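Final report, section 2: Outcomes. Of the targets proposed, Multiple sugar transport system permease protein is the one most frequently requested by collaborating groups, and we therefore present its record in full.
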Amino acid sequence: MIPTIDFSAPRHRAKFGYLLLAPAVLLMAVIIVYPILLSVSISMQDVRIARIGDSGEPWTLENYQWLFGSGETWHALWVTFKLVAVVGGLSVIIGFATAMLVNQKFRGRAAARLFVALPWAVPEVVATVIWAWMLDSSFGLVNWVLLTSGLVSEPIAFGSNPTAAFAAVCFVMIWKGYPLMSIMLLAGLQSIPEEQYQAAKVDGAGVWQRFWYITLPNMLPVVGVTMVMTTLWVFRDFAIIHVLTQGGPLGATTTLSILTFEQSFEFFRMGQGAAVGVLTMVLCAIISRALVGRMAKSVH
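The predicted structure is given below as tokens.
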């Protein structure tokens, strides 16, 4: 007789929970854990082109010696942090302002919310190609508007001027990313009980007082999650930068993701590219943990 387990019994209920979680854990191990371990392994080998089934090279730390001793890495790290600060900060600010705007009651609010979400719905590569045409220094729409309005006396070379190229990348990433921030923050705003605002009005609190003492404290957890998502998105984003500037000019927009691509698929140094990828993963984990921990402390 085959022994059976009564999962309804109190002592076996935990086992039933583990049994239900087992397929998800196995799936995560296959699609997340294994690629991470493989990337770490490749980063410690002198691999030019990775092939499935190869016996592999002996492990070495030469790729990490190159990683921390190369000026390319530190420059890409500096550009990445600048991009995170500018894009992340402005995306959250604009998203918060937009969320508060469309949270008000006015005619056409549903259409306004749909309009806010449109940039996020457009495929990233398609949107970036359109912006690349609009920012072209010869026949782009942006330069035409600036010249016609008299704001500039000559076309801005978004493709060859380092400062202009970085600003263009920031602008397109903010345009693409702020709708998601707005939607998440709008959901947070709608979860704040209306009774708190009514009680504050009765006590004579003004608009800024209600925002500072009611809206902001209630929104801190949502803002924390939003900042984490924005940071991770900017860290890993590749398509916008590659289509607009390909990391140039003069490395002005070369982030860690662009450096990973260059080392792996342009110079065929996949060991070094994997090392940059591992560094990116570790930095994302540290920053996410720091942001979540800080927001959790501020809430309590």
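The mean pLDDT is 86.
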